[in-house]
Each structure stands twice: as C-alpha cells, then as structure tokens.
Design goal:
Structural class: alpha+beta
Shape: globular
InterPro entries: AGP_Transferase, Aminoglycoside_PTrfase, Kinase-like_dom_sf
GO molecular function, one term: transferase activity
Number of helices: 11
Protein name: Aminoglycoside phosphotransferase
CATH superfamily of the largest domain: Aminoglycoside phosphotransferase (APH), C-terminal lobe
Radius of gyration: 19 Å
Strand content: 15-25%
Number of domains: 2
CATH architecture of the largest domain: Alpha-Beta Complex
Strand order of the largest sheet: 1-2-3-5-4
Number of strands: 12
Keywords: Transferase
Helix content: 40-55%
Pfam families: APH (PF01636)
C-alpha cells in the first residue's frame, strides 16, 4: 500500500501556541493537537477544541487555493455524500478547519488485517462514487473555487491521455521508467483513449484521489470521503482505477459493483481494465515528480507492469 511511499513535502510542525494563533480569527481554541501521519503533501492536525468538540486543522502545502474548492464541494454534496464540512478557511494563510469524522482509513484497516470491515463498506464506497458522478458538467477540465471548469480540455479522454503522452516524453520519466517501458505504455494508452472516447457520457465530478488513504470507514460503513483538492470534471473511471490500484479483500469488488448500480451508475463492458489503464496516468505522474522516493518509483513501475501484462 502507499503508506510506505514517502511524502512529497515535509510536515509543517507547529506548537499549540502557533496553532491557536492561526485559529484566533475563527474564535476556536485548541486545548490539544496531534499531528496526523496520513497524507503525502499537506499537513493535518487533530484538534481537541476547548468546547469539547474535535476538528482537523489542514495546512495546504501543495495548492493554496484548495481550501475554497473543498469548501465549495462540501457545500454542493452535503447531505448526499459523507464529506466533512469546512468550518473555517483562511486563504491568506492557506489553512482550513474541517469537521472531524469518526473512523479509520481503508488503508489503515487493511494494514491491521480488518478486511471484513473494509468489505462491509464496499457497497457504500460504490454507491457514493455513483452519487458523485451524477454531478455533471458541459466540459472536462480542472475546477475553480466556484465549481466552474477553468481551462477546459478537448474531451475527457484527450485531456487525460494527452497529458500521459506529454509525461512519457519527459526526461525524468524516461530515466526512471526506461525507454522500453515508456514505449510499451503508448499503444495501451492509445487504445484506452479510443475506448474512453467511445463511452457516451458527459464529464462528471471526479474526486481525483478516490483511494484507500482518503476513504474513512466506521463500523463497516463509509463515514467520510477526504481530501478533494484534485477534484475536476472528468470520468468516474479514474476513481475506480484508484480504488482498485492495490489488492482488495474477497467480496469487495462484487459489493462495490452492486453499490455503484444501486446509486444509479452504469458499468460499461471491460470497466475494470479500462480503469486500470486510466490509472497509468497517475503512475507516470508519480514518476515525473522530483520528490518521488525509491519506494514510490518502484511501486509505480510495478503497477504499470501489472497493468500492461493484463492488457496483453
């Protein structure tokens, strides 16, 4: 799992006094704060507030504008999807205070051997993805803080696989993956682009990082979908590729599929493999990052090799 992959940025370590200085405009006061170990870029603290409630202080290191985007998504999906409410955000100092949700991440539960609890939540995970995908857009592309597409792509497929082609030409990717692996990816990418273009669906809201580290589970139910900073208008199949990137427990896929259908989603023929092929973009993107450590590089290459072997 990706918990062994190193962080792209160092944690921002703050004292309790420094945290309360940040919180002062919100009129919240933290009695205690614990650094949360999850995440590969941003820094999160669990706050025990003076009024007895709990919250998360989220420091945006990768994208300072993500606080407003997460606030807009929580406002749009509240009541339909278990998204933590944004209680306060400060764009100037690039942080937000977010509602605390009970549960453990899917990744942590799997690492603890609690596979049955993860399988129990699979129906919720599939149904929630279907509900998210019902938010539709006229164009594909990244979203601004008003949930409007900014800098639209020619199409979902051309936006995703066009960027994959660009990354495959980058010297750092060539050096890490090797020219042969990059050449083997190209025909699979081209075929996947055609398959995705042939699916007659409008662009939809995509979480952008719908994987085990961002899915919170409590007592066998999905209690929260975390970290929406990569949200965009695209295809829900990206999320499928992310959730099935690593091995899942027995029965998970069947329950996920049933939940997705219950939520109104339709699964095209060959959906699992197409989702894997779309996830090639994420793996190659990891290889393009200067900050990627050896574990992330090796893990990404292993997933690419597995996907290519299944594609034939």
């Amino acid at each position: 799992m990706e918990s062994t992959w190193g962080r792209g940025m160092d944690f921002v370590r703050l004292s309790l006094a420094e945290i309360n200085d940040l919180l002062s405009p919100s009129e919240m006061v933290a009695a205690d704060a614990d650094l949360l170990p999850e995440g590969h870029a941003n820094t999160n603290y669990r706050l025990d507030l003076a009024d007895g409630s709990h919250a998360v202080l989220r420091l945006y290191q990768r994208d300072p504008g993500a606080a407003r985007l997460e606030w807009a998504i929580a406002d749009r999906l509240g009541g339909e999807v278990p998204v933590p409410r944004v209680l306060y955000f400060d764009n100037g100092r690039q942080f937000a205070v977010i509602e605390w949700k009970l549960g453990e991440t899917m990744e942590r539960l799997l690492a603890s051997g609690l596979e049955a609890e993860v399988s129990d939540a699979a129906t919720d995970i599939g149904r929630t993805l279907a509900v998210i995908s019902k938010v539709r857009f006229d164009q594909a592309g990244f979203l601004d803080a008003d949930l409007e597409v900014s800098g639209p792509w020619p199409s979902v497929a051309d936006g995703l696989f066009g960027h994959l082609d660009f990354l495959l030409d980058q010297p750092l990717v060539q050096a890490r993956a090797g020219g042969n692996l990059c050449r083997r990816i190209r025909p699979v990418s081209a075929a996947a682009r055609k398959k995705l273009n042939d699916i007659d669906e409008p662009p939809c809201l995509v979480h952008g990082d719908y994987k085990a580290t961002n899915l919170l589970i409590h007592e066998g139910r999905l209690s929260a979908v975390l970290d929406w900073e990569f949200a965009h208008s695209g295809t829900w199949l990206m999320s499928v590729g992310q959730i099935f990137r690593h091995a899942v427990p027995r029965g998970f896929e069947e329950r996920f599929e049933a939940g997705f259908r219950e939520g109104g989603g339709k699964l095209p023929p060959g959906w699992r493999q197409l989702a894997r092929e779309i996830d090639l973009l994420s793996m190659v993107d990891f290889l393009s990052r200067e900050s990627a450590d050896e574990a992330r590089i090796a893990g990404s290459i292993a997933i690419i090799e597995r996907t290519l072997s299944i594609a034939g």
